């Protein structure tokens, strides 16, 4: 009879281990969900840099194509001012 409370006390941490872990998971879930939502809705610095680089490459490609078109047109017309380009310039 004296041993039953002692045995119950010894087994209690083993039996309650899953409950404590589950309770901790339930308590921390809203925090984890909120932080994940913030991660999804905000842009990191590396993402921002990558997007800016992509934008600049597109602008530079547009400028290159326009300069090429302008040079071809200038050569066709044999204009004397072919060295001066006043069209689109990337980054401005």
Provide mean pLDDT, rounded. Answer: 78
Identify low-pLDDT runs. Answer: none
- Number of continuous helical runs: 2
Write down the domain tally: 2
Q: Return Rg in Å.
A: 34 Å
- Distance linking N and C termini: 89 Å
Q: What's the SSE pattern?
A: HH
Percent range for β-strand residues? under 5%
Structural class: mainly alpha
Instruction: Please describe the biggest sheet, giving its number of strands, its sense, and whether it closes into a barrel.
Output: none
User: Percentage of helical residues?
Assistant: over 70%
Shape field:
rod-shaped
Report the strand count.
0
Protein name: Lipoprotein
Region (Disordered): 39-79
Keywords: Signal
Biased composition (Basic and acidic residues): 47-79
Summarize the structure.
This protein is mainly α and 92 residues long. It has two helices and no strands. Helices cover 78% and strands 0% of the residues.
């Amino acid at each position: 009879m004296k041993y039953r409370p002692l045995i119950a006390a010894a087994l209690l941490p083993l039996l309650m281990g899953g409950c404590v872990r589950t309770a901790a998971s339930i308590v921390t879930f809203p925090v984890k969900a909120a932080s994940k939502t913030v991660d999804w809705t905000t842009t990191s610095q590396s993402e921002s840099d990558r997007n800016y680089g992509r934008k600049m490459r597109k602008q530079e490609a547009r400028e290159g194509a326009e300069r090429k078109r302008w040079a071809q047109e200038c050569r066709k017309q044999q204009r004397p001012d072919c060295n001066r380009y006043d069209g689109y310039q990337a980054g401005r």
